[in-house]
Specification:
Distance between the termini: 60 Å
Largest sheet: 4 strands, mixed
Strand content: 5-15%
Number of strands: 13
Strand order of the largest sheet: 10-13-12-11
Length: about 575
């Protein structure tokens, strides 16, 4: 079965898959999901031929699990880095089996200090471990060493940064949308026969109809190049005056992508394969439209690639209004693509500036006619450099949306916490007030001069003993430490709701109460009040709850251990 639940078509009985490693042992071919081939020539590496062949062999073994040229290309780049490292050694190894643990330690030391270096180590390690000669011994142990996690450095946008990016994107997309809307109205009037024959608008309507049908304004091909007809009628030969009347440019499509990422937190790669949303019935309302948007995020395990989100357009301020506008802005592009390739129903369509250029990005959908799909890294880079925004907005906009929503968006809960939330400076800053409120609450609880635990008749199984009481659950302490336990002073145990006091504690607590009272005669009032007053009042509250008679009787049962622990407690030697 396929990942979508349909029965897969079996290949012919005589079908044979070509091995990735060529007969010469030096060229590896990787076929991606779309069926395109990409070759990697290991004869180019600056190492001995034996090592070239060994690296090609382990690369071919690893490539069996790849269906992406991006994955293969990333691995190839790190292989070349490793080959250069070997070539620069004083005594370069002739083959992988000649590598020593000392060499691999130097390789690790060169890269372990940066995020990009850690990624290089992670790429090269499985290749080396695929060679049986490197699987055991000191070399195998070195390769098995843990590589620390990368430290996320991307941050969400601050308020002013985000507003600046959104203003640029909104201005550009809004201008394009109004331009396309105005020309669409004129085209519809021409098709309905509502324009006066021979008028400026009627002649422009003819041009727009030709543009909608072909993706080009009427033009002639001359020996010197293409000649655009009706220049005066169109108002010039800029893209906005020609094909831009009905189609988004790649830059305008990128602006739309920025707005969608800010609103919904979608990854940049999602836009390459996003189908046009379909509409679903909106219960109880005819004024709203609910769109079903299919999201494809390619990750390991094809069955987890797809999800569907329901997004409702209920007015100008609703999230679904942006989907409505995206459908309107891309309508002519999608219609043209559908005529040329009926099976294509992608949403993010743009008119290319240079349709005749060769398509080189084998991981992305092929253009159809003059139309391209999705947003590439190059589009994002050109967009932010053109608008002087200091970096691609997509990762930061997605991070901003994820932290704003406070829940995972196309990623796991673990990734949500460790990659998006905890390392983010703006989340940390916004959380300070929460931490401060918690600290104030803990302080107020500690300053309360009453015993807030429970009085028991006997010890309970599972409760942990402390110097002053038993603890029912140290992980639920109002004063947690960095390791998730309790960081409170033992005297504060009596201010904790987890404290459990039974008769076995009475002698020590009664003696502690007596000892603290005795300090009052030798300490200045200010010092005693600052250090001991609240603890004494809490002990007296406990005494009243236990009963004065039982409390006083407990003094007769004080032993040497009780005296020693109280002495250490008062001196501060038992403070955590």
């Amino acid at each position: 079965m396929t990942g979508r639940g349909r029965r897969a078509i079996l290949p012919p009985a005589d079908h044979r898959t070509e091995p990735p490693l060529a007969p010469d042992g030096l060229v590896v071919t990787v076929v991606n999901k779309a069926g395109y081939e990409m070759t990697f020539d290991f004869a180019e590496l600056p190492v001995a031929e034996a090592m070239q062949r060994s690296l090609a062999e382990v690369f071919a073994i690893r490539s069996a699990g790849w269906n992406s040229h991006e994955t293969a290309r990333a691995s190839w780049i790190t292989v070349k880095m490793f080959a250069r490292f070997v070539a620069e050694l004083e005594h370069p190894s002739q083959d992988l089996g000649d590598l020593t643990s000392a060499m691999l330690k130097r390789w690790r030391a060169r890269h372990i200090g940066t995020n990009s270096g850690k990624n290089v180590l992670r790429q090269v390690r499985p290749l080396l471990r695929a060679d049986p000669r490197l699987a055991a011994g000191p070399v195998g142990e070195e390769l098995a060493r843990r590589i620390p996690k990368t430290v996320p450095i991307k941050q969400s946008y601050g308020k002013e940064e985000r507003e600046r990016v959104l203003r640029v994107a909104q201005r550009q997309f809004r201008t394009a949308l109004l331009r396309i809307r105005e020309n669409t109205i004129l085209l519809e009037r021409w098709r309905a026969g509502d324009l006066e024959e021979g008028s400026h608008d009627e002649r422009l309507g003819q041009v727009l109809d030709h543009l909608a049908q072909t993706g080009y304004v009427p033009h002639a091909v001359m020996p010197s190049g293409e000649f655009v007809k009706d220049r005066a009628l169109l108002g010039g030969t800029s893209p906005e005056n020609m094909w831009g009347r009905l189609f988004l440019s790649r830059s305008e499509l990128t602006a739309l992508g920025v707005l969608l990422t800010d609103r919904f937190g979608w990854n940049l790669s999602v836009y390459d394969r996003m189908p046009a949303p379909t509409t679903a019935p909106s219960a109880g309302s005819t004024a709203t439209v609910t769109y079903q948007v299919q999201i494809e995020k390619r990750r390991q395990g094809g069955g987890r690639w797809f999800s569907t989100e329901n997004i409702t357009d209920s007015g100008a301020d609703s999230s679904g209004r942006l989907i409505t506008q995206a459908l309107e802005a891309t309508a002519h592009g999608r219609a043209l693509v559908h005529r040329l390739a009926p099976d294509n129903n992608l949403l993010m369509v743009a008119r290319m500036h240079y349709p005749k250029r060769r398509h080189q990005r084998t991981e992305r959908p092929r253009p159809v006619g003059p139309c391209a799909f999705g947003i590439g890294n190059g589009d994002a880079q050109l967009w932010w450099t053109t608008h002087d925004l200091g970096g691609s907005p997509f990762q930061r906009a997605r991070r901003t949306t994820v932290t704003r929503e406070g829940r995972p968006l196309q990623h796991s809960q673990g990734a949500h916490q460790s990659i998006y939330v905890l390392p983010d400076e703006h989340v940390q800053h916004a959380s300070r007030s929460v931490f401060e409120a918690g600290a104030r609450e803990a302080l107020e609880q500690a300053q309360a001069v009453v015993f807030v635990g429970d009085i028991a008749d006997a010890p309970a199984p599972g409760h942990e003993q402390t110097v002053t009481a038993d603890c029912a659950d140290e992980t639920a302490s109002p004063w947690p430490d960095a390791k998730g336990g309790c960081g409170a002073d033992f005297l504060l145990c009596l201010a904790c709701p987890n404290a459990r006091v039974h008769p076995g504690h009475h002698p020590r607590l009664a003696y502690l109460h007596q000892k603290l009272h005795s300090l009052r005669s030798v300490l200045p009032d200010r010092t005693w009040n600052e250090h001991w007053r609240e603890h004494v009042l809490r002990l007296e509250d406990l005494r009243d709850k236990v009963g004065p008679a039982a409390w006083n009787a407990a003094l007769a049962r004080v032993n040497d251990e009780d005296r020693a622990l109280v002495h250490l407690l008062v001196k501060g030697d038992l403070t955590p």
